[in-house]
Write a structure and sequence with these properties.
Layout lengths: L14 E4 L2 E8 L4 H14 L2 E7 L4 E6 L8 E10 L2 E9 L14 H17 L1
Antiparallel strand pairs: 1-2, 2-6, 3-4, 4-5, 5-6
Helix pairs in contact: 1-2
Length: 126
């Protein structure tokens, strides 16, 4: 998991990008970095993640999710960087690293759900 926005692959692949790993991104037009940073914390919480680390200067928020019927040991990172009047966001979600099929069943919906909850917070708040 990247430890800062500088390490995140904002222009990299989307979708399934590794063993039990999914990535997605978005541009929040007209929202500054501080607003999107708060939205990242809310988006993770609303998706069921417990916040583990939030560092505005490094442009990242990390969370952990409990066990679901299909996932366990899921971690997610939301990374952001200001580009003019907009803020780019990159989301990475990784599941368990077990061997066999069941170690690679993490849901592809995690990044999409986090982004959706971020967007809903921003629309409702600003």
């Amino acid at each position: 998991m990247p430890q800062s926005a500088d390490e995140a692959a904002f222009d990299g692949e989307r979708g399934k990008t590794g063993w039990s790993e999914y990535q997605n991104g978005d541009v929040f037009q007209g929202y500054n970095g501080d607003q999107v940073f708060e939205a990242a914390k809310v988006g993770l919480k609303q998706t069921g993640f417990a916040l583990k680390k939030a560092d505005r200067s490094r442009g990242m928020v990390l969370g952990e999710h409990g066990i679901t019927p299909f996932d366990w040991n899921v971690v997610a990172g939301v990374y952001l960087k200001q580009v003019g009047a907009d803020t780019r966001v990159h989301v990475v979600a990784e599941g368990s690293k077990d061997v066999g099929f069941f170690g690679d069943t993490t849901s592809a919906d995690w990044p999409r759900n986090i982004l959706r909850n971020m967007r809903e917070y921003l629309y409702a708040t600003y």
